[in-house]
């Protein structure tokens, strides 16, 4: 078995366990769902998609694809940069506020991971931060940290 077959088989078992675990909670129907309805649908989706993945990986194996190392070609330095920047984001979120911290975080990622030109970095960071602010603060009315300047 290859990596895809193993992970698909594991997810298939997890999906079935979710389906079976949601049955004691009443399922209801599409028009009147009960508490077990959504977990059952999620378990079914996991089961179906993992079965499709298992079949697809089996067909690829029959076509002669070999096992390849999961770690080959992984760019660890990018993963470490993203992890460190997420830690920085967590610690700077309250003092700087959501909008400024998110703008700086996105600008850093746009520039550090795959270096882009500065106009694209600044524009992309401002657009992403504005969209997130409008989504969470304006539309969903979530209380985001304002920071020192009240932004």
Largest sheet: none
Termini, distance in Å? 54 Å
Radius of gyration: 22 Å
The secondary-structure class comes to mainly alpha
**Which overall shape is indicated by the principal axes computed on the Cα atoms?**
flat
Q: Tell me the helix content.
A: 55-70%
SSE arrangement, N to C: HHHHH
Strand content: under 5%
Per DSSP, the total helix count is 5
Low-confidence stretches: none
Quaternary structure: single chain
- Domain module count: 2
Average residue pLDDT: 89
Number of β-strand runs: 0
What's a quick, concise take on this entry?
The protein is mostly helical. The chain is 69% helix and 0% strand.
Structure description:
The structure is a single chain. With 151 residues, this protein is mainly alpha-helical. The protein folds into 2 domains: 3-62; 76-139, no CATH class. The chain contains 5 helices and no strands. Helix 1 runs antiparallel to helix 2 (37-62) and helix 4 (98-112) packs antiparallel against helix 5. The protein is flat, with a radius of gyration of 22 Å. The model has no long low-confidence stretch (mean pLDDT 89).
